[in-house]
Amino acid sequence: MRITFIALAIVIFSLVGCSEANKDNPHVSTASGNVSVLPFEFMMDDLDRQRTVRLYLPPDYDSSSQAYSVLYMHDGQNVFDDATSYAGEWGVDETLNHLAQSSALRLIVVAIDNGGDFRMNELSPWENKRFGEAQGKQYMDFIVDVVKPYIDNNYRTLADAQHTGIMGSSMGGLISHYAIHAYPQVFRKAGIFSPSYWYSSQVFEFTQQHKADLKAKLYVMYGDKEGDGMIADTDRMQRQLIVQGHPRSQMMFKRVVGGEHNEKLWRSEFAEAIQWLFAD
Question: pLDDT by residue (tens digit) across 133-175?
């Protein structure tokens, strides 16, 4: 079947648009003062790699004794800082700083950098004939068994599943969908932006066999200019989850008029998604 121009563009963006940051990016850092890069590389023993982790703490973290919910995000280079992003940042720090002033929402955000050339493999638990072996389970085990325990042991977190979320876009949306179903004891909130369900049809079979906790909240968002495949796949997933019995009150499927597969869309929708996911 002939691949449409839009579908091809999404594939290219999945490969390049969220890839490892360009080391020669001349942009000045836009990260807020309450964002830091953790001072050592985390070991991914199962994949024999190291990984940078970035951390956002709420503005009142140092002046309070409060414990906070935690959101884990993929493609960490694109989360806080235009200087490390490939095609623009999400502005998560600026958005959450604003929400901290205008509402009661305060979160810790842990952003795990992507693996550059390994990104497609790490962000899928299912093999793809074109892109190679699946490394998504090892990547998620790294987050669950290495990164999360470090964060919970060194920062004031609400460590239970009810207060722990995961979020990403494109391939990051795919692995976030996997995480909420594969680790129900760890995550009960998932921001699934422009998910790359096209990467493997096994996502539908897996979702049928490994159901998310009925209290889990799933926020699935995509743009109507991301191609017919994106629309068809997300509609199929929505129908499947309804048939499987996941409560409709715990799901939000949003199609954004004029939305394209890029950081502009994901940045513009972050505030609404995060408030819905952590409304409780």
Answer: 999 999 999 999 999 999 999 999 999 999 999 999 999 999 9
Count of C-beta atoms within a 10 Å radius of residue 113: 23
Q: Please state the pTM of the whole predicted model.
A: 0.91
Q: Which helix (H) or strand (E) holds 228?
A: helix 228-244
CA–CA gap between residue 34 and residue 181 (Å, rounded)? 31
Sign of the C-alpha dihedral computed for residues 226, 118, 212 and 219 taken in this order: negative
Pairing of strands 189-193, 217-223: parallel
Q: Report which DSSP code applies to 41.
A: P
Quote the CA–CA distance of 159 and 70 in Å, as a whole number.
8
Distance, CA of 160 to CA of 69 (rounded, Å):
9
Which of 119, 114, 121 has its CA nearest to residue 135? 121
Kindly list the structural domains of the chain, giving each domain's residue range(s) and its CATH number in brackets, ordered by start: 5-277 (3.40.50.1820)
Q: Exposed, middle or buried by CB within 10 Å (0-12, 13-18, 19+), for 31?
A: buried
- Tokens representing residue 82 in the block: 């235009």
pLDDT by residue (tens digit) across 115-128?
Answer: 999 999 999 999 99
CA dist., res. 84 & res. 248, Å (int): 38
CA 96 vs. chain centroid, Å, equals: 16
CA distance 214 to 142: 25
Structure tokens at 208: 């049928």
